[in-house]
Amino acid sequence: MTDLPELLAQTTSALVGTVAGGAIALYVARWQTLRTAEIQARTTTAQENAAVQLAHSLRVHERETTAARALLERLEGLLRWLPALPDLTADRPSSSEEARAHCSAAMQSLRGGMSTDLLMITDPVVRDRYRALVELVYDTGYRGAGQGHRERQIRDARNYLRHVQHTLESVIDGVPLPRHAAPPRPDRPGDEAWLPPDLPPHWTDPADGS
User: Fold this and answer.
1) Sign (positive/negative) of CA torsion 26, 29, 33, 39?
2) pTM beyond 0.70
């Protein structure tokens, strides 16, 4: 028969093992719970941040789309009266007084877009192209740059206007902008018109009279 001290030692050892095992199991379970809670908190925070960023991006895109559409309307207003552009300061204009007045008003609208709608677009490339168009039409219409090349003046303005249209349409569609191209220099020699580097499919002829 096992004596009492040995029985007590065995009992104590088993009890200690049971308590230690339980403590370890409890510690592991608690660590796993805390770890799971931490992961869930991080995931929730990441999802909330992503949702905030997405909402911000959508607001920016909506704002830029609205601004780009407004600028396109200004371009359309000028496109109609471009043939009168070289006649604004000509001694013997080919265009009627009414056409010149409409062209001048369209140019003012175009320039006005720089201090309103254009400021809503963050891409500096878009801004630079629009401003270059304003400079081109004012150099042609009011400074008389390129005189002696009337047809080229009109085509240069029309084709660069289309380049800017394509750029604004890309902003609306959320696609890459058309390739960069330096704007035409109205004082250059020759009669060859400037052509855009890229054209969307619905523009079949960049130098037509539309």
Assistant:
1) positive
2) yes
